[in-house]
Design a protein that fits this description.
Distance between the termini: 46 Å
Oligomer: single chain
CATH topology: Rossmann fold
Strand order of the largest sheet: 1-2-3-5-4
Shape: globular
Order of helices and strands: HHEHHEHEHHEHEH
Number of domains: 1
Number of strands: 5
Number of helices: 9
Bound molecules: thiamine diphosphate
Structural class: alpha/beta
Radius of gyration: 19 Å
Largest sheet: 5 strands, parallel
Length: about 290
């Protein structure tokens, strides 16, 4: 076999491996969406809209990129994922179930005092969670700290953070954006869940973000823009973020709040609301 045919073979197997992994990620996302609805329905509360917009991103990130170990959640060599928009924690519980950190039976414990699934992320209660969040704006600062430590230790660990677009109204995010660029933290990857809705209205009505791409670029970030429900685009952007060595990368992921459930899509009322018995039945049918 010549060097070039060997490299063609490798590209082919890489492509086949990617295709297979993305098919698995799609199945994971399907189960996650069901479990997000079951959790919020059972607890009679939660934030399904912003969970469903982030589901496909989390499925690809966890399935294909994060180096983590469900048998040893505190493994010191792990990559970090910080859910800065902590109200979307059912999405993180749902992906942790699929990755084997939690059991599906724990769905009923969401928002219960007993159990390991509190209403907002807790790094002391839940295996696989590395940051307590809920108060918006803090995740990128924490990602910076862990990424800087990993660089100083030469461990090669990466830190990923998921930010809401409404969360970008917090000034701390932009302080942290400057810090990551200053220290050229090429092991930080921020993902913006750009679903265009805030808590009680459209983002542009509450406070527009203007030219979001230009803002991140002006803050010194390698900036990518994708469809946050397109598996190839999510995968390729995360690969590009790993490859880029000159500084931090942000992936602006255009998404739909409530994605996957027809009556929840793009409806601000589903920011914080639980499906009724009837709504759950319809939604689960749509997702099956
Ligand atoms: C510091 C802070 N201010 C206000 C809130 C209340 N709050 C909870 S969710 C939310 C809207 C966030 O919008 P976005 O980040 O776009 O979330 P998504 O639409 O993705 O769910 C707000 C203002 C909060 N949790 N923390």
């Amino acid at each position: 076999m010549t060097a070039s045919s060997k490299s063609n073979e490798k590209t082919k197997t890489d492509q086949a491996r990617k295709k297979e992994a993305l098919e698995e990620a799609k199945l994971i996302a399907q189960k996650m969406r069901r479990n997000i609805l079951l959790m919020t329905h059972h607890a009679k509360g939660g934030h399904p809209g912003g969970c469903l917009s982030a589901t496909d991103i989390l499925a690809v990130l966890y399935k294909c990129f994060l180096r983590i170990d469900p048998q040893n959640p505190r493994w010191s060599g792990r990559d970090y994922f910080f859910l800065s928009k902590g109200h979307a924690v059912p999405a993180q519980y749902a992906v942790l179930i699929e990755m084997g950190f939690l059991s599906p039976e724990e769905i009923k414990d969401f928002r219960e005092v007993e159990g390991r699934l509190p209403a907002y992320p807790s790094c002391t209660d839940t295996p696989g969670i590395d940051m307590a969040s809920g108060s918006l704006g803090q995740g990128l600062s924490i990602a910076n700290g862990t990424a800087l430590a990993a660089k100083l230790d030469g461990t090669g660990q990466r830190a990923y953070v998921l930010l809401g677009d409404g969360e970008l109204h917090e000034g701390q995010v932009w302080e942290a954006a400057m810090t990551a660029a200053h220290y050229k933290l090429n092991n930080v990857c921020a993902i913006v869940d750009y679903n265009k809705l805030q808590l009680d209205g459209a983002l542009d009505e509450v406070k527009t973000l203007g030219d979001l791409r230009a803002k991140w670029e002006a803050f010194g970030w390698h900036t990518l823009e994708i469809d946050g429900h397109d598996y190839e685009q999510i995968y390729d952007a995360l690969v590009e973020a790993e490859r880029f060595k000159d500084g931090p990368t942000v992936i602006i992921a255009h998404t739909v709040k409530g994605k996957g459930v027809s009556f929840m899509e793009d409806e601000v009322g589903w920011h914080c609301a639980a499906p009724s018995d009837e709504e759950l039945e319809i939604a689960l049918k749509e997702l099956s």
